[in-house]
Design a protein that fits this description.
Layout lengths: L15 H10 L4 H14 L8 H20 L3 H5 L6 E9 L2 E10 L10 E5 L3 H9 L20 H14 L13 H12 L4 H8 L3 H7 L2 H11 L1 H4 L12
Antiparallel strand pairs: 1-2, 2-3
Helix pairs in contact: 3-5, 3-7
Length: 244
């Protein structure tokens, strides 16, 4: 057995400033998110697709993106979601209006952390629309599958992502915008919306420590909001809509 000497252990300092800059750069701004979800409606419309297969797969990709933004799930988890993993649909009150959400499960064998968990997708639109057009509806079939019922390939995902960002005129020269950015966006908006850190961690399948380390800069923004709360009292806060 090799002896380990303390003076031979490399200790790397945690670069908080760099991590903060990376997370902020790698997520969507509210303006770019709005441009994306509105642009996808037009890009995925039947009149803009060459054939039925292209229309089908564009719709699947659109709803897959909305699913990521509304659940905070990892891409691999959502890609392996089966119809049997959708537990039910529930009505809830949303600022005085009735809204439908989806209750679903992530199986341990599809989770990065190998643990089962249950969570809500805060809008049912992406799964309802997929249900309406899906040609693969068996309990063990994938929800977000291609025309042949197969898991979305990296090639198709990459092609759609590049096309939709270009169509929506979303500049990525200063940001590393990827599918994972949708998970960053979910966490950021949930935290700013007042959701407890423990609840976000449970929903995303992360530890509280990991979220604090990655999104610690949001603490400062939360403190600022608290400090200005009296000044903002009585003003109607604009709600960020993720589900459109």
């Amino acid at each position: 057995m090799t002896d380990i000497s303390a003076d031979r252990i490399e200790i790397r300092e945690f670069d908080r400033v760099k991590l903060q800059a990376n997370v902020r750069r790698d997520t969507f701004t509210k303006k770019k998110w709005e441009r994306l979800y509105k642009g996808m409606r037009s890009f995925c419309a039947k009149k803009n697709c060459g054939n039925d297969t292209e229309y089908y797969e564009r719709q699947i990709s659109r709803n897959y993106i909305l699913g990521l933004a509304n659940t905070g799930m990892r891409t691999g988890e959502l890609e392996q979601l089966q119809w049997r993993d959708i537990i039910d649909y529930r009505k809830t009150d949303d600022y005085g209006k009735t809204k439908e959400v989806v209750f679903l499960q992530v199986r341990a064998d599809t989770s990065k952390v190998r643990k089962d968990r249950r969570l809500f997708c805060r809008d049912s639109g992406c799964s309802r629309r997929t249900d309406e057009i899906s040609i693969n509806r068996g309990a063990d079939d994938l929800v977000f599958a291609d025309y042949k019922g197969k898991r979305l390939s990296e090639r198709k995902k990459k092609a759609f992502w590049e096309q939709i960002l270009d169509f929506c005129k979303i500049d990525t020269s200063d940001r590393n915008i990827t599918y994972y950015s949708l998970r960053h966006f979910y966490v950021t908006q949930s935290w700013k919306g007042g959701v407890k850190l423990r609840d976000i961690a449970n929903s995303c399948g992360n530890s509280i420590h990991q979220l604090e380390k990655t999104y610690y800069h949001l603490d400062e923004e939360t403190l600022m909001d608290t400090a200005l709360k009296d000044e903002r009292r009585g003003k109607k806060k604009k709600k960020v809509m993720l589900q459109l």
